[in-house]
Specification:
3 helices; 112 residues; Alpha-Beta Plaits; alpha+beta
């Protein structure tokens, strides 16, 4: 466990065939098929992300991600955009856009 992130370790997920499939998905096809990723593929991608976060150190934390039909939106706690881009680079993840969250709102915001 690293900053609330569970690192998955399973030798089956590190098979060469799966590694090649995941690498192909991450190189660009990921967006086109994000919603159809299998649990096995999600676990392998998560493992890779956790490994990169661990290597980058405690200044970056992967909070969670949202998977839609064609994209994965990831939420990080990081000191700057460059750190998030470095995570993407080291992980082989496409990162077309990085946006800083300026404010959060929720139903309780009506009372502000």
């Amino acid at each position: 466990m690293l900053n609330g992130i569970t690192t998955l370790r399973n030798p089956e997920w590190q098979s060469p065939a799966l590694a090649n499939r995941i690498a192909g998905l991450l190189r660009g096809a990921l967006g086109a098929c994000a919603g159809s990723l299998t649990e096995h593929e999600i676990q392998a991608i998560s493992q890779k992300s956790c490994s990169v976060v661990q290597n980058l150190g405690p200044q970056i934390q992967w909070v969670h991600s949202y998977v839609t039909d064609d994209k994965i939106y990831c939420v990080y706690i990081a000191p700057n955009e460059e750190m998030v881009k470095e995570h993407a680079k080291q992980g082989g993840f496409p990162a077309n856009r990085v946006s800083e969250v300026k404010r959060m709102i929720d139903p309780s915001s009506v009372e502000a």
